[in-house]
Amino acid sequence: MEQIMRNMFLYMAKNQSANRLAKRYGLRFGARRFVAGETVDNAVTKTKALNEQGFKVTLDHLGESVFTRKEAEEAAKDCLRTLDAAAKEKLTVYLSIKLTQLGLDIDEAFCLEQVRGIVARAAGYGYFVRIDIEDYAHNEATLRLFNRVRSEFPDHIGLVIQACLYKSKKDVEVFGKEGVNLRLVKGAYKESPRVAFPDKADVDKNFIHLLEMHLTNGCFTAIATHDDTVIDHMKQFIANRGIQKDQYEFQMLYGIRTQLQERLVREGYPVRVYVPFGRDWYAYFMRRLAERPANVGFVLKSMFKS
User: Largest Cα–Cα distance in the chain?
Assistant: First the structure.
């Protein structure tokens, strides 16, 4: 039953009609739990509060799969405005971007120029940009574009790698030799068994293997998970290897397992909260429900309270 619900939410995440409807009615039906708001000001307010509690933050102006240059250019402007606002308030943040939001499906060279402009602005402020990884169909283009921008701004850009993909072990090996800052995740997209592990147990096993491999290579590693088993394992691994706090951080999503986030900070671990915001929140929200169908109960309660 859980797998059926997961597949349903992943299918709904790609429904453009539902996305347009969600924009029209705003953050309702439980989405506010996972999305910080629709404006940069909303995100700044939430980030200030999190910074004061000892958390670092990743800001993500939500959006993906735009179909016109105008939409992509506006998305890039939103990213620049986000960086400007964060710098003005001296927030402890970095920025997450999706390449399909910036025109990857329109023209790769056009997308490259957009990303270059964003990373240049971030570098000027001393900030860092993380290129998010999307579905497998965009994987190679994402890595290609990332490598081109990294050649110009090596200290201000990083990448996400999904443990669910067979190819990720090779990718981490290559990036480990080059000292790349990676955020490792299990993966939130439905992929073919031709390219991804179909069984959760295999994904979990590969996730831990990739984390250990990248940390052992001496590279900065963002451990992006809410899984207690993985967190406990990595805490022990970090202690046994004497890995310093400036080489890793635990990363978790806004609105999910906040008590665990707070406990890790109290224990002295570096923790970064991924804070999404913006009007284009629908696809992100659906993937959060797909990852943990138990969240549906919260949504249903919110609907009846509305």
Answer: 53
Q: Determine the angle formed by the axes of helices 2-13 and 282-291, rounding to 10 degrees.
A: 170
Residue 172, number of CB atoms within 10 A of its CB: 24
What is the model's pLDDT at position 73?
Answer: 97
Q: Which one, of 262, 261, 306, 256, lies nearest residue 284 by Cα?
A: 256
- Mean per-residue pLDDT for 69-92? 97
Q: In Å, what is the CA distance from 283 to each residue of 19, 34, 62, 92, 140?
A: 7, 12, 9, 27, 22
* Active-site residue, from 6, 121, 183, 279: 183
CA quadruple 256, 257, 259, 265: dihedral sign: negative
CATH number for the segment(s) 36-280: 3.20.20.220
The active-site residue, picked from 60, 78, 105, 132, is: 132
* Residue 132 annotated as catalytic: yes
Pick the closest to residue 46 from 255, 289, 299 (CA basis): 255
Condensed to tens digits (0 to 9), the pLDDT of residues 128-160 reads 999 999 999 999 999 999 999 999 999 999 999
